[in-house]
User: What shape does this take?
Amino acid sequence: MTSYLSVPLFVLGWALTPVFVRYMSGSYDPYTQAFIRYASAALALTLYSSVVYRGELLRAIRHWRILLPMSAMITTMQLAWTVAIYHTTATMAQLVTTLQAPLVILLSFLVFHDERNTIRNPRFILGTLLCIVGVTGVFMRDDGESIRIVIDLALVLLIFVSIAWAVYAVWGRHTAKGLHPVAMFTVISVYVTIGFVFTMLLFGDPRSLLSAGTRMNGIAFLSGVVCIALAHCAFHFAQVRLGSAFCTTIQLVSPFITHVLALGFWPDERLLWIQWAGGGILLLGAFLVIRARGQQSTAETTP
Assistant: This one.
C-alpha cells in the first residue's frame, strides 16, 4: 500500500518541475538555477537522513563507486532538462520527455525478470504503442502554412533527457534494491550539487543567488525539496516494489497536470488541436498500462 501512495508524490512533484523552472527562469540562468534547486534538495535530505537513516546513509556513502558515476549522468541530464525548458514551454517539455516510457520498458525487459510478465501483457504493449503515437502528435507545430514536426534545440535536448532518464530509472532501481532509497538519493544529491558548483562557476552567474531575492530563493528551495528530494525518493521507493516500467509509464499523466498549472501563468502554453489529440491518445495508453499492471499484481497475489 505504501508503494502505491508514493506514486502520486513523484507524479505531482515532477509535474510541478517545469512550471517551477520556467517561473524562475527570469531570476536565474539555467546553471545557477540547477545548482540552487539541487543544493536545496541535498540540504533537506542530508539533515533528514542524518537523523532518521544514519546507518543507511553511512552505508550509501561507502558505495560511492556506484553512486558517483550515476550522479555524473544525472548532472548532465538535469542540465539538459533545465536548458531545454528555457527554450520551450513547460507543457511541451513535459510531453516530449514521455518518450522515456518505451525506453524504460525496453531496458527493464532486458534487466529485470519480474517486469517481463507485465511487459508481455497485450494491454501494456498496446498502451505503450498508443503513447508513442500520442507523443508524435504532440511534436506537431503550426508554422502558418502547414502543421508539421519541428526539430529544434529544446526537442533535441529533451530526447537526450528521455534516453538518460530511462538509464537512470533502471540503474536506480537496481541500486535501490541494495540501498535505502532515501539514503541513496541523499548521497547522489550531494554529488550532483558539487558538480553544479563547477558548471555554475564556469557558465552561470552566481551573483543571481543574491539578486534573486529572498522570495525567489525561497521558491527555489521549495522546488528543490518537493520536485527533487521528495519526488526522487518516492520514485525509487515505488519502483523497487512496483517496477520501473510501471512507475515511469504512470508519469505520462504528469504533462496534463503541468499544462493545467502552467496555463494559469503563460498563454503560450495552449496546445493545437492535433497536440490535444496526441495528448488524449497518450492518456489512453497510460490507462491501458495501469490496467496491465493491475492484472499482473492480481495474478501474482492469487494463490
Q: What stands out?
A: The first strand starts at residue 140 and ends at 142. The first helix runs from residue 2 to 24. The CA atoms of residues 235 and 275 lie 28 Å apart.
